[in-house]
Design brief:
By secondary structure, the chain is mainly alpha-helical. The chain has a domain at 48-137. 52% of the residues lie in helices and 10% in strands. Helix 2 (33-65) runs antiparallel to helix 6. 15% of the residues are buried. Residues 12-16 have low confidence and may be disordered.
């Protein structure tokens, strides 16, 4: 998904329209750009949170399907973080053997769970974003 910063969003909104100004016979009575930006930020934050939770669920389900669960430590450690500066959500784990499960080793076959969670559910993630942006957060 392409990144869109607040500044680039702001550039796409006509900034020259100030209160009381007339543009092509339209009089600007109130400038609501800040209100709209705040609503977009709230919608984005709530969408990223829901996508993060969904991706966690997909990763945990994949671990179970791959028969990669022994004690449940890895599955229970899968989590997400939101980076509003990057306008992104990241899923992952801090369990030291997680890369060996995801990528495999010379002695064990790879059993990916994070990559499929991130890559195989684009339609579901898109619907989450559309829902949140349509409702304003």
């Amino acid at each position: 998904m392409a990144k869109t910063s607040k500044d680039s969003r702001r550039n796409r909104i006509q900034m020259s329209a100030m209160e009381g100004e007339s543009i092509d016979n339209v009089i600007i009575r109130e400038n609501n750009i800040k209100t709209v930006e705040e609503a977009l930020d709230r919608a984005l934050a709530s969408a990223l949170e829901e996508v993060g939770l969904a991706a966690e669920g997909f990763a945990k389900k994949k671990l179970t399907e791959n028969h990669s669960v022994d004690t449940g430590r890895l599955r229970n450690s899968v989590t997400h973080i939101i980076d509003m500066g990057e306008e992104a959500v990241y899923i992952g784990t801090n369990v030291e053997y997680a890369p060996y499960v995801e990528l495999g080793t010379s002695r064990s076959k790879e059993k990916p769970y994070l990559r499929p969670a991130a890559q195989d559910h684009e339609t579901e993630y898109r619907k989450i974003f559309e829902k949140h942006l349509a409702s304003g957060g």
